[in-house]
Write a structure and sequence with these properties.
This protein is of the alpha/beta class. It contains ten helices and ten strands. Helix 8 packs parallel to helix 9.
Length: 252
């Protein structure tokens, strides 16, 4: 397994081309050799390919605007091919934050053709969870429904350790549940400071021993560090401390 940086952590520093280039260099200088592109400003895919190569980085996964994935699938595929990225991710389903009115069937109808097109191009659609997907009313939750309603060779999952824990789930158990469909896992720690908040990996309370073992069993390929909110700390320093923790555990 390779460790990487989810660039959503440093999204404020990727909004212009100059800042994005400097951010890639800073992340590479920390030691990361893998990044996930997410939350950035507009970029030219050929430019990104050159910047990744210059910094000895790879990008196996993006979070791409869901509307573009659904309505501009061919263009999204060609763009990702330019920087050799095989997995196109949905960071959150459109409308999921208003879960009571979320139309699950419409979501599947809209994104199934994109998933099939990505498969035909030798790529994968990915779904990243928050806590909403763990709501149960009668029967399976949304992640379980997606796993049943999309073939494994068309949809993979980017399981997020923080949000699974936040929802009351066991991250390791869910990673094992989706073995072979969890190529990329978001590593995100949880600390308690009056309430739950995100933390540098190893500085919170999530049991990463069980998560690492589950990832090994599930044949996860990439462990991607993410911290949506650094609570006033320098996000590059947070990425550095997470990297040092993972390196000390034997990952690189």
């Amino acid at each position: 397994m390779r460790i990487g940086a989810q660039l959503y952590t440093v999204r404020e520093f990727t909004q212009t081309q100059a800042d994005f280039a400097e951010t890639l260099k800073k992340v590479a200088d920390i030691g990361y050799r893998t990044v996930q592109v997410s939350g950035s400003g507009p970029f030219d895919p050929a430019w990104l390919a050159a910047e990744l190569k210059k910094n000895d980085l790879i990008c196996p996964l993006t979070h791409t605007a869901p509307d573009r994935i659904a309505s501009e699938t061919a263009a999204v595929i060609e763009e990702h091919k330019l920087f050799d990225c095989p997995i196109v991710g949905i960071g959150a389903a459109p409308g999921i934050f208003n879960y009571d009115s979320f139309d699950y069937a419409a979501f599947c109808d809209r994104f199934r053709p994109a998933a099939e097109s990505l498969k035909a191009a030798g790529m994968l659609l990915a779904y990243h969870n928050h806590h909403f997907e763990f709501y149960r009313s009668d029967g399976p939750n949304m992640l379980e429904r997606l796993a049943a309603d999309f073939a494994a060779d068309t949809l993979t999952f980017v399981l997020d350790t923080y949000w699974i824990q936040f929802a009351g789930g066991d991250p390791a158990a869910w990673i094992r549940k989706f073995a072979d469909r969890a190529q990329c896992v978001h590593l995100k720690d949880m600390a308690i400071v009056g309430t739950q908040q995100m933390a540098v990996i190893g500085e919170g309370n999530i049991n990463f021993d069980t998560i690492f073992a589950a990832c090994e069993d599930a044949r996860t390929q990439y462990l991607l560090v993410e911290q949506d909110d650094c609570y006033g700390e320098n996000p590059f320093d947070c990425l550095r401390r997470s990297y040092e923790y993972l390196r000390a555990r034997g990952y690189e």
